Amino acid sequence: MTADAGRSPKRILILGANGQLGIELQRSFAGRDEITALGRDRCDLADLGQVRRVVAEAKPEIILNAAAYTAVDRAESEPELAQRVNGEAAGVLAEEARKLSALLIHYSTDYVFDGSKSGAWVEEDETGPLNVYGASKLAGERSIAEAGGRYLIFRTSWVFSAHGHNFLRTMLRLGAERDQLKIVSDQIGSPTSTFAIASATRQVIDRVTSDAAESADRSGVYHMTCAGQTSWCGFAEAIFQRARKEDGGKWASVTGIASAEYPTPARRPANSVLSNEKLQLKFGVVLPSWEDALERTLKGIA
Ligand SMILES: NC(=O)c1ccc[n+]([C@@H]2O[C@H](COP(=O)([O-])OP(=O)(O)OC[C@H]3O[C@@H](n4cnc5c(N)ncnc54)[C@H](OP(=O)(O)O)[C@@H]3O)[C@@H](O)[C@H]2O)c1
Fold first, then answer.
1. CB of residue 20 inside a 6 A radius of ligand 1
2. A single GO BP annotation from the record (predicted)?
3. Active site residue: 107, 111, 133, 222, which one?
4. Which residue among 93, 136, 173, 226 is least packed, with the fewest CB closer than 10 Å?
5. Whether residue 222 lies in the annotated active site
């Protein structure tokens, strides 16, 4: 008997269907739930009226919002758009979800913190985004909470996958083209695969949707990242180590540099590591180590 046996399929609306997480969520829920998955072409979060119409028409029991303005550096010069998509639209989704008594699952970011803590950040820690993207995601968290419905916000970090735009895919491209790469070594965080996020999301849903009253009690913010931590430089080294082992090829060697030597329009936190203790305590959900998640993702690419 599978874990899904006896469970009734849910009507799930996935937004941001063409992003790296959206693709994985579709894969993870396909076959067991009734999925409507929409990309920006069918539901543009910058168009708040369209967001309301789409949700009202789809009448989902669960909304998985993987859509976001994620261009961290570009957001510095497009703050209004980032705020509308990540801040206001998230609140509109939460209001529409409340009208339907649906559960809204939304993803947020480690960039809501300023990176100054020495240990792992917990959910109750004071936020203090350093950039426009982080501020817009924090605004989204707040507007969801204010809407007063059932919601779960999962803050994740350094997301990678076999698809889309992410650090892993950029490194695999650059590492094959160049002999040497200089990568920032003074920002630490937890690389997290879309597979790990989708699978943890599934496990949480299975625990909450059986009891609506209980899931209302559990509404809130949870950290959801792979276990362990590294720097961007350490992440790049791990990628090339595994790639060399796999194909014996000559991959770039990596030298660590300070963030100051690689200026970007948006400032980024020095310490992005999030504690997952609350997720584990409330839902019994544990994510794999980032190294295992990397191994698994690379096997999918090979
Ligand atoms: N990537 C990370 O490292 C990271 C870290 C922490 C948290 N997160 C959070 O994790 C979630 C998933 O991110 P991801 O990594 O999957 O990002 P992604 O690959 O960039 O996907 C985001 C998706 O949102 C869509 N989108 C952008 N603007 C939109 C709009 N106005 N209306 C509708 N859709 C729009 C994009 O559409 P197009 O394909 O048309 O551009 C894209 O498909 C987001 O909430 C993000 O903030 C990501």
1. yes
2. dTDP-rhamnose biosynthetic process
3. 133
4. 173
5. no
